[in-house]
Amino acid sequence: MQNHVHDRLEEYLMDEMEPFAREIFENHVAKCRSCANRVRDARESQSYLAWLRPMEAPPRPGPDFYRKLERSIERKASSGWLPNLAAMLQGPRLAFPLLFLVLGLLLTAWTMDFEPELTESGVLGIPPARFSDAISSEADRLHSREMVMVSLVEETD
């Protein structure tokens, strides 16, 4: 047999070969080590795949199952948003985060200071007198630049 078992391996494993072709195939596999390894590996793979098959058929729903399911979905959709919200809040997935959020907001509101400050506030909460002192003049900027340059020159010497 010139061709190895590549072409007819599946047919052999499924036991769909004619008897004469099967005899030739088995004689070749007995003489060819690589083909024997290939058949062995294919049988092993086939046994692993057999593990994946279900032992029994999955359960089938009753004849009125889909009708009942459709009615249930229609009832939930037509019930409105308030019952749906109440149903969502019954589960801990949404109820606990909302509870912690409300408690956090209450705690924040309780600790806030509601007395207004009597100080005069200007831009960004800085009183106007301080704000005018914070803006430097052009002469101050040039003087600061000269001081930086002098300190850099002294450092390099």
Task: Offer a few descriptive terms.
157 residues; mainly alpha; 8 helices; 69% helix
Describe the overall structure.
It is a single chain. With 157 residues, the chain is mostly helical. Among the domains are: 9-52, no CATH class; 123-156. It has 8 helices and no strands. Helix 2 (19-31) crosses helix 3. The longest helix has 20 residues, at 33-52.
Short description:
By secondary structure, this protein is an all-alpha fold.
Helices, strands, pairings?
Blueprint: H1 9-13, H2 19-31, H3 33-52, H4 65-78, H5 81-90, H6 92-111, H7 128-134, H8 138-156
Helix pairs in contact: 2-3
Overall 3D shape: flat
Give me the Rg, rounded: 43 Å
- End-to-end C-alpha gap: 93 Å
Q: What portion of the residues fall into strands of 2 or more residues? A: under 5%
Q: Pairing-aware structural class of the strands and helices?
A: mainly alpha
Largest sheet: none
Approximate helicity band: 55-70%
Instruction: Provide the succession of SSEs.
Output: HHHHHHHH
Summed up, the helix count is 8
Q: How would you name the oligomeric state of the polypeptide chains in this document?
A: single chain
Mean pLDDT: 77
**Unreliable stretches covering 5 or more consecutive residues:** none
Tally the beta strands: 0
